[in-house]
Write a structure and sequence with these properties.
The complex is a heterodimer of chains A (about 350) and B (about 325).
Chain A: E1 5-18, E2 21-34, E3 38-42, H1 49-56, E4 65-74, E5 77-78, H2 84-93, E6 95-98, H3 112-124, H4 128-135, H5 138-162, H6 168-171, H7 181-193, E7 199-203, H8 211-228, E8 231-236, H9 239-245, E9 248-253, E10 256-262, H10 263-268, H11 273-281, H12 320-324, E11 331-334, E12 337-339
Parallel strand pairs in A: 3-8, 3-9, 6-7, 7-8
Antiparallel strand pairs in A: 1-2, 1-4, 4-5, 9-10, 10-12, 11-12
Helix pairs in contact in A: 3-5, 4-5, 5-7, 7-8
Chain B: E1 4-19, E2 24-40, E3 44-48, H1 55-62, E4 70-75, E5 78-79, H2 85-91, E6 95-98, H3 112-122, H4 128-141, H5 158-170, E7 176-180, H6 188-205, E8 208-213, H7 216-222, E9 225-230, E10 233-239, H8 240-245, H9 250-258, H10 300-303, E11 309-312, E12 315-317
Parallel strand pairs in B: 3-8, 3-9, 6-7, 7-8
Antiparallel strand pairs in B: 1-2, 1-4, 4-5, 9-10, 10-12, 11-12
Chain lengths: ~350, ~325
């Protein structure tokens, strides 16, 4: 783990305009990610995990989304200020994403091989060499394109074999529906990593898969992380997956990162009342009946969030301050362990 | 506690597969292929398996929401498969089902009062003021408020909707509930609330649960006895302690080791299974798990289908390793 900061999100605020009003989806997100980190982003449905991740790639749909404040620095540059073309290049070379549902991420009417080649080709075309080739006149154009395509094909095959697709040369001409869920997710991982990215954003990559397939995919991601020296932002609501994969964890609640720390700190020594509640709510190995405890109430409606700290209506330690003032900026309570809560200010 | 409430013998459900020019039947999907279960009164029986293992089909055939192809379902000694449709409908008041998706299992055009009261009206249990009182009682039982009665399902969160489904299911004072993944659509903090409600109701109403889930942690938390399904067959049955502390079948061992544990310091060595259920189906008359089995099976696994055998008090395994 180096000390180089890869991603830094500062006080990011994101609103969504809906027919019912403005939904404050992200309400001042602060997050740091170092190169080589495997960072888990956890939280319940609708807490803004995916939107935080999408904002790193500047992929939040705007409209209806609207970034109303904050910065997202990737390798020190604010991605929110980049032009569309610069962003496209950044995404092609540095960022890769895989999503929860591998079925909807693949086009059903093209073969797996064609889709892989297109993805790899779109990255190659932006390189200087190919642009020169394109400029070389019609005579040069055809062989060059063919050659690029051949190279893309080789790379696609290499990646498919690496992620464990059996009979990859034959299966390249198969269509997505001929692959099982686990195999599709492998194809997407192959496509995402074919450009040798720096950061992999994995949004619930195993939620749609069975336990035994989940284990296969997680093992594959772990191997590739080491092999390619990747940094990973792993978004999930499954705390078991986080415990297994991540060294660092950020916990989100209703559009705010409430706690950030090493996995050991978060699981063994949680400090924010929400994290404490979350840890109490999951049955783990050897939990006896009556030992788990839900957090009373439910997640707030972001169209009309409670004033002050958004967790205060469900919090057993809520102070009067929590109902009035927004929660304080992250407070450091240990080595790389920060909490956003008045209890610690 | 010792009396069997539900016994299932040789349950099979084959779904026809149609194909070809005239949509003729070309084969079967053997969703459930010879399942035996014994569920005792007051027990929480867990049925675990990966998707496509046939666990939901077992749950639905037990209530005859799907007609079984073969087999006996003895509920308090009476074979449900022999009942006529109207007799079965009357019997169903004693066994109810709770579904996975609280969003699609409630009619969006009915108020909560109507949803919870409907079984009482259909089975002519109550009307007028008695109905009203019973519905209020049920709503209180599952932890909802009286002012929720006149709202519609879309006004509730997932956890509250699941509570409405539970209130509807217990309205007729059933003896048994079939719960098909009741918490998989819910967030963890809400899942815990619903699990606790289910445990509380079980004690209060003396219910028997058939709890279907793929979440081993939830099964371990709520069940007394667990059965593991794989491709329509049961591979191992035992008490929670048997299954989770001393798993015998290689599939159970692999599944347990692959279950992510929410504890960064305790990460057991994993046994990672090759392949997938669908791609590596065992052939007829062989062990169905053999193609994925990490124990690199003996010749018998490819020649003979293992049957469930009792290893010790109440712990049954279907595997040639223990012959």
């Amino acid at each position: 783990m180096s000390d180089e900061l890869l991603v830094e999100i500062k006080d990011l605020r994101l609103n969504f305009r809906t027919f019912d009003g403005v939904s404050k989806v992200l309400n001042g997100v602060n997050l740091k990610m170092w190169r080589g980190d495997v960072l888990g982003l956890v939280g319940e449905t609708g807490c803004g995990k995916t939107m935080t991740a999408l904002s790193i790639a500047h992929l939040v749909p705007c409209p209806p989304g609207e970034i109303v404040g904050g910065e997202v620095l990737f390798e020190g540059e604010n991605v929110l200020e980049k032009s569309a073309e610069d962003m496209r290049l950044l995404r092609a070379r540095k960022l890769a994403m895989i999503f929860q549902d591998p079925t909807t991420s693949l086009n059903p009417v093209f073969s797996i091989g064609d889709q892989m080649i297109d993805i790899i080709g779109s990255r190659q075309d932006t390189s200087k060499a190919s642009r020169l080739g394109m400029l070389g006149g019609a005579g040069n154009l055809l062989p060059d394109v063919r050659q690029l395509r051949r190279r893309a094909r080789e790379r696609a095959l290499e990646m498919l074999q690496r992620v464990g697709i059996a009979d990859a040369p034959q299966r390249m001409s198969d269509y997505p529906h001929q692959f099982s869920g686990g195999m599709r997710q492998r194809v997407l991982i192959a496509a995402a990593l074919s450009g040798r990215p720096t950061l992999l954003i994995a949004d619930e990559p195993t939620t749609a898969l069975d336990v035994s397939i989940q284990a296969q995919i997680l093992r594959l991601i772990q191997e590739l992380v080491e092999e390619l020296n990747l940094s990973v932002l792993l978004i999930t609501h499954n705390l078991g997956v986080v415990a297994k994969m991540c060294q660092k964890v950020a916990v989100m609640y209703a559009g705010v990162v409430v706690e950030y720390g090493s996995a050991i700190d978060i699981f063994k020594n949680p400090q924010h009342p929400y994290t404490v509640g979350l840890m109490r709510a999951i049955p783990t190995y050897g939990t006896k009946r009556g030992e788990i405890q839900g957090i009373p109430g439910s997640v707030p409606n972001l169209l009309d969030p409670p004033p002050g700290c958004r967790f205060h209506p469900r919090c057993e330690h809520a102070l009067t301050r929590c109902e009035e003032e927004p929660p304080p900026a992250p407070i450091e309570i240990g080595a790389e362990h920060v909490v956003s809560c008045f209890l610690y200010s | 506690m010792t009396e069997a409430l539900l016994q299932v013998r040789g349950l099979k459900k084959y779904f026809p597969v149609k194909g070809g020019l005239f949509q003729r039947q070309v084969g079967y999907v053997k969703a459930v292929d010879g399942v035996d279960l014994d569920i005792k009164r007051g027990q929480s029986f867990g049925l675990v398996g990966e998707s496509g293992s046939g666990k939901t089909t077992v749950g639905k055939t037990i209530l005859r929401l799907i007609e079984p192809t073969e087999g006996e379902i003895l509920f308090e000694g009476q074979d449900l498969c022999q009942l006529s449709e109207s007799e079965m409908r009357a019997r169903r008041s004693e066994m109810q089902m709770i579904f996975q998706d609280p969003y699609s299992s409630l009619n969006p055009r009915m108020t909560v009062k109507r949803i919870v009261g409907e079984p009482l009206i259909v089975h002519k249990w109550a009307k007028g003021r008695a109905l009203d009182e019973r519905v209020r009682e049920l709503i209180g039982l599952v932890g909802l408020m009286e002012d929720h009665l006149y709202r519609y399902p879309h006004e509730f969160s997932g956890g509250q909707r699941q509570r409405i489904g539970i209130a509807r299911a217990v309205a007729l004072e059933p003896r048994m509930l079939v719960l098909d993944e009741p918490t998989s659509a819910l967030d963890v903090s809400v899942q815990a609330q619903v699990l606790d409600l289910l445990l509380e109701l079980q004690g209060r109403l003396n219910l028997t649960y058939l709890f279907i889930s793929h979440d081993l942690a939830v099964i371990r938390y709520i069940c007394d006895r667990v059965a593991l399904m794989y491709q329509g067959r049961i591979l191992e049955v035992g008490s929670v302690e048997d299954i989770f502390i001393e798993p015998m079948h290689p599939y159970t061992q692999a599944l347990l080791s692959a279950m992510p544990v929410a504890d960064p310091e305790y990460q057991p060595e994993e046994i990672i299974l090759e392949g997938e259920i669908s791609t590596l189906a065992g052939a007829e008359g062989t062990c169905r798990f053999a193609p994925r089995c990490p124990m690199k099976s003996s010749e018998r696994c490819a020649q003979q289908e293992p049957v469930l055998k009792e290893l010790k008090g109440g712990h049954l395994v279907a595997c040639h390793l223990y012959d």
